[in-house]
Automatic annotation (TrEMBL), chain A:
Pfam families in UniProt: DeoC
Protein name listed in UniProt: Deoxyribose-phosphate aldolase
CDD domains in UniProt: DeoC
Taxonomic lineage of the native organism: Bacteria, Bacillati, Actinomycetota, Actinomycetes, Kitasatosporales
Gene giving rise to this polypeptide: deoC
A cellular-component GO term for this protein: cytoplasm
Domain of life: Bacteria
UniProt organism field: Streptomyces tagetis
Automatic annotation (TrEMBL), chain C:
Keyword Oxidoreductase: yes
Keywords from the UniProt entry: Oxidoreductase
The keyword Cell inner membrane is annotated on this UniProt entry: no
UniProt name for this protein: Aldehyde dehydrogenase family protein
Domain called Aldehyde dehydrogenase: residue spans: 24-255
GO function terms (MF aspect): oxidoreductase activity
Pfam families reported in the protein's UniProt record: Aldedh
InterPro entries (alphabetical): Ald_DH/histidinol_DH, Ald_DH_N, Aldehyde_DH_dom
Length: 329, 483, 296
């Protein structure tokens, strides 16, 4: 089982001030100056680097390691209007024991559900290390008043959510109102208290440019995110190797500057074991081995888990598995 | 399978490409007039895998008599080849391009074995570019009257071509494709340490049904090259290699009517401004000097970094270099392969030692070099000035010299302060600065916010002592036409 | 002979860096017409004159190559205007130098003036004709453009003292190179007079430098000079051309070998321009406008 890494000190004002970042969030204009002063991103170069890392060939023992690691990093997700307690219970059971035929299979990292489903999820994973993550802040659009967003968060935390996946106000971000986005994250973080880790979803597909994704990453980290996360899974473009690589560079640079380690969660669109392994290569060669742990890296996914399990079976038995040999939930 | 929490990095298991896709014969002859034949005097030499020092094959060593026979064969073939309608010549070249694609994996493995470069590069760069080069030039064969060289430009005759060992098959393609498309015939002398892919190319020509004598391949050392260049039956000489040999060839050709193109050395500057996209710049700098172990004429072997971001860039660069994977070139995860020969390794070693002796600060990542074969760890020198030998001489190896500048003017002045003029790189997010600096750089290829990109449509070649003439694109045709 | 006035003879001088120095050697040589009659003394340039001319040409290169093509075109056209005004002088000098009738000499001079006009029009077109965008297979903008090679040594033709001279000098400077010109050894006077026109045509000093003297003596140091980028051997015979080409290899000068020219009045092609142009290719990533289009 992947052990949980010791929690790094929570990002707080002292870390920020020690690294000279304290004044950055003093006003809208200082924040803007800081974010727009970050190095630019050349899209072609970034994508070429991500593609190049995608050609790494991960075989045999490395593949076995990577598959188990990837399984342990899955935030098994259901975020549908049609979600029911039954569906969520099934998902929880699967997260705890992904492969009923092989109990040595690691558990998933978490189940990720809507706030009203948190109690059922908690019940389903009780007694295991599997966490319950809840989306909040009027997911996925985030178009609600602050009061409603915070109520959403409070409900999730009160129901026992270990992790809260909030969405940022993309409208505010795109109109340049960075301080508003910052303050919302801070408020949510405060509401999470010490009991829940906060994942901040940027909806990178809506931010559109890589420069924006880099700025959002720093904005989220400055505001106290424990994790930065690409997407809701509800728009056309979700996690890609390139935007995840960019966010990995951001957490790497943030730790170098502040000493604070932040997690990364690509979500949406990662469906195959092959893709997941490519992401792990990105982690390994960008942020480094310190992030190769489900405390610091997650996959927001649903169908990915079954492909990981089938590949795991293939590696163990030498023959290709099929969908009938993994559970459909 | 239990999974222990690993303290070390995600270790990639060996992922070697299979050698079984390529069948190397124990010996090869010269390819003259469509047949493989021994050298007239029966001489042979061995070609080894630089990664292991294993002997791969024994190859005929051409002497003057063999070169003469090859030139005569090419001359004879020229009559019919040049008279062929362009559309028919085009189809031969298209066939060659397609066969090269089909046999891409085999040739990539072969090239990696004979040259020592990583399979990742032969598979993803060399071979795709080789096929693309033939495909591109095929289309020119029947369109030369539209190329801007008059209504009916004529071929020159027999092209004598001498190519280096750093991109054996790609340099062959750069030479042979335009020569054939324009109606010339060819005698090609591959480098002594990397003869095999050219000999496999002879087989590609056979499969394509190319008429006898249109392409002739004479393997051997510099003497065979010198004989070819000096042969009175040669109408055009194309050489890629060292500046010293290039000058010698220029002298040899003085007073003759032979047309000459030279693609020689370089000491490319990669200029990183403080407003650069830094992560991509670091990638570009790494790619610029460690691609093909730095054995690239257009390598960005001088890093000019603005003083205000020097430390940040150096930290990032060292971190990135530390992730480079050096080792078995056939392993699909290898980034840095073997140096091509013991001789080249000795040169790199000597120049790096000189850098140290002259006071530059040397750094390499922790890096285990294999026991056999020719290897050199990625190396970075800081505190380098324009006066250091390592800032002036072409090292042709994985050695980067880092210099600093304060203003764009200073960057340009330092970049241009070399007898070479092949390549340069500019990294900045400011568009007007790119254009202004690119304008003032005396280099034939300027990569802005990228590096080491090649394309058959894009002319390549240098200013000053980096040679003359261009290869690739419409411009490259001129070298093979009577204009 | 209508009156007894004694004419004022011209002291022919070199044209270097926009000034009219005598030869550093302090020596001159006799220039005669085709019948052997003395015409003038011309400076006998030394290696040091060649060196000074290269320094002047190098100094002028930055501004001249950096001038707009339109500006260079206007200056070349201005040279034609200035020549037109002094047409009679050149007709006389060419007639004397080449032993031509006045009518034949006039044809040569007119053709030479028209040649400046022709090249004046080329300055802002050559880049479009020989440069352009290359459709590379990737997300890159890729543009090739011609750039001047640098300092070009030009050995002017030995016979065609003016039209031949203009035909080899104009294409070199039209594209932004600067030139060190060695006038035809026995016919240097029209060339030296050209300096006077260039000096009054807004052509920056040093763009064209004109030396007279023994071609072989001046050419040797130019061919070997490490700060000369190219050499046009039009005025060299076979043996000299070979010797100079060998010397030129030391810094890989671009060499334009001598080609037999029967008639300098024929419309030139672009070859004399492209011989002294480098192709620079600049790449830049294009990429998508946003990250939204990216995928696996």
């Amino acid at each position: 089982m992947p052990t949980t890494a010791p929690a790094a000190p929570a990002p707080d004002a002292s870390a920020a001030s020690a690294s000279g970042l304290a004044d950055v969030t003093a006003s809208d204009s200082t924040l803007r100056r800081f974010l727009h002063g970050l190095p630019g991103v050349d899209a072609v170069g970034l994508e070429a680097r991500a593609a190049s890392l995608g050609t790494r060939s991960i075989k045999t023992t490395a593949k076995a390691y990577a598959l188990d690691l990837a399984i342990s990093m899955v935030d098994l997700t259901t975020l549908e209007g049609a979600d029911t307690p039954g569906k969520v219970r099934a998902l929880g059971a699967k997260a705890v024991h992904p492969d009923p035929t092989d109990r040595a299979t690691p558990s998933a990292a978490a189940v990720c559900v809507y706030p009203d489903m948190v109690p059922f999820a908690k019940e389903a994973v009780a007694g295991s290390d599997v966490k319950v993550a809840s989306v909040a802040t009027a997911f996925p659009a985030g178009r609600a008043s602050m009061a409603v967003k915070l109520a959403d968060v409070r409900e999730a935390v009160a129901a026992g959510a270990d992790e809260v996946d909030m969405v940022i106000d993309r409208g505010a971000f795109l109109s340049g109102n960075y301080l508003k986005v910052h303050d919302e994250i801070t408020a949510v973080k405060e509401t999470c208290g010490t009991s829940a880790r906060l994942k901040v979803i940027f909806e990178t597909g809506e931010l559109s440019t890589y420069d924006n994704i880099r700025r959002a990453s720093w904005l989220g980290m400055l505001a106290g995110a424990d994790f930065i996360k690409t997407s809701t899974g509800k728009v056309a473009v979700n996690a890609t190797p390139a935007n995840t690589l960019l966010m990995l560079e951001a957490v790497r640079d943030f730790r170098a500057q502040t000493g604070v380690q932040i997690g990364v969660k690509p979500a949406g669109g990662i469906r195959t074991a092959k893709d997941a392994i490519k992401f792990l290569v990105l982690v390994n060669e960008t942020a480094g081995a310190d992030w190769l742990d489900n405390h610091w890296f997650r996959f927001g996914a649903s169908s990915l888990l079954n492909d990981l399990l089938m590949q795991r079976q293939k590696l163990a038995t030498g023959r290709y598995s099929g969908p009938d040999y993994v559970t459909v939930d | 399978m239990t999974m222990e929490k690993r303290t070390s990095a995600f270790e990639y298991a060996p992922a070697p490409e299979s050698r079984a896709v390529v069948d190397i014969a124990p010996s090869y002859g010269l390819f003259i007039d469509g047949e493989f034949a021994e050298a007239a005097d029966g001489k042979v030499f061995k070609t080894v895998s630089p990664a292991t020092e294993e002997v791969l094959s024994e190859v005929a060593e051409a002497g003057e008599a063999d070169v003469d026979r090859a030139v005569r064969a090419a001359r004879k073939a020229f009559e019919t080849w040049s008279a062929l309608p362009g559309a028919e010549r085009a189809k031969y070249l298209f066939r060659i391009a397609r066969i090269l694609q089909e046999r891409g994996r085999e040739l990539a493995v072969l090239e990696t074995l004979d040259n020592g470069k990583p399979i990742r590069e032969t598979r993803d760069a060399d071979l795709p570019l080789v096929a693309a080069h033939f495909f591109y030039h095929a289309g020119w064969a029947d369109k030369l009257s539209h190329a801007g060289y008059g209504p009916d430009p004529r071929p020159l005759g027999v092209a004598g071509q001498v190519i280096p060992w750093n991109f054996p098959l790609l340099m062959l393609a750069w030479k042979v494709a335009p020569a054939l498309a324009t109606g010339n015939t060819v005698v090609l002398k591959p480098a002594e340490t990397t003869p095999l892919s050219a000999l496999f190319f002879a087989d590609v020509c056979r499969q394509a049904g190319l008429p006898k004598g249109v392409v002739n391949i004479v393997t051997g050392d510099g003497r065979a090259g010198a004989a070819l260049v000096a042969h009175p039956g040669v109408d055009k000489v194309a050489f890629t290699g060292s500046t010293a040999v290039g000058k010698q060839i220029a002298r040899t050709l003085a007073g003759t009517r032979k047309k000459l193109t030279l693609e020689l050395g370089g000491k490319g500057a990669n200029i990183v401004f403080d407003d650069a996209p830094l992560d991509q710049a670091v990638e570009g700098v790494v790619n610029g000097i460690f691609f093909n172990q730095g054995q690239v004429c257009c390598a960005g072997s001088r890093l000019l970094v603005q003083e205000s971001v020097h430390d940040e860039v150096l930290d990032a660069l060292k971190r990135r270099i530390s992730t480079l994977r050096l080792g078995d070139p056939l392993d699909k995860n290898t980034d840095i392969g073997a140096i091509n020969s013991a001789q080249q390794l000795a040169r790199i070693t000597a120049l790096a030692d000189r850098g140290e002796a002259e006071g530059a600060e040397r750094w390499s990542p922790a890096c285990q070099l294999p026991e056999n074969g020719y290897w050199f760890a990625p190396t970075l020198f800081t505190n380098v000035t324009q006066a250091h030998t390592i800032a002036r001489d072409e090292i042709f190896g994985p050695v980067l010299s880092v210099l600093t500048f304060r203003t764009p003017d200073e960057a340009v002045a330092k970049a241009n302060n070399t007898p070479y003029g092949l390549s340069a790189g500019i990294w900045t997010e400011k568009g007007s600065r790119i254009l202004a600096v690119a304008n003032r750089l005396r280099a034939g290829v300027v990569w802005s916010n990228t590096f080491n990109k090649f394309d058959p449509t894009s002319p390549f070649g240098g200013y000053k002592e980096s040679g003359h003439g261009r290869e690739g694109g419409r411009h490259g045709l001129e070298a093979y036409l009577d204009v | 002979m209508s009156d007894a006035r004694l004419s004022v003879l011209k002291t022919y001088k070199l044209y270097v860096g926009g000034k009219f120095p005598r030869s550093e050697s302090g020596r001159v040589y006799e220039v005669t017409d085709s019948k052997g009659t003395w015409l003038a003394n011309a400076p006998l340039s030394s290696r040091k004159d060649a060196r000074d001319a290269v320094v002047a040409a190098r100094k002028a290169f930055g501004a001249w190559s950096g001038a707009t093509a339109y500006n260079r075109g206007q200056i070349l056209y201005r040279i034609a205007e200035m020549l037109e005004g002094r047409r009679d002088q050149y007709v006389r000098e060419v007639a004397e130098a080449e032993g031509l009738s006045k009518a034949k000499a006039a044809q040569q001079v007119d053709a030479a003036i028209d040649r400046w006009v022709w090249y004046a029009g080329w300055t802002d077109k050559i880049a479009q004709v020989v440069g352009g965008a290359n459709p590379v297979a990737g997300p890159y903008f890729n543009l090739s453009s011609p750039e001047p090679t640098g300092v070009v040594a030009v050995l002017a033709p030995q016979k065609s003292s003016f039209l031949g001279l203009v035909s080899v000098v104009a294409p070199v400077i039209a594209t932004g190179n600067t030139a060190v010109v060695v006038a035809g050894e026995r016919v240097p006077l029209p060339a030296l007079s050209l300096g006077e026109v260039l000096a009054t045509s807004d052509l920056p000093g040093g763009v064209v430098n004109i030396l007279s003297g023994r071609t072989a003596e001046i050419a040797a140091p130019l061919a070997a000079h490490q700060d000369v980028n190219a050499i046009d051997l039009a005025g060299a015979d076979e043996a000299l051309a070979k010797e100079l080409e060998i010397a030129a290899a030391d810094n890989l000068k671009r060499v334009l070998r001598p080609q037999p020219v029967d008639d300098w009045s024929a419309t030139p092609g672009t070859e004399r321009m492209t011989a002294f142009l480098e192709t620079k290719t600049v790449w830049h990533p294009t990429g998508a406008l946003g990250a939204s289009g990216s995928s696996y």
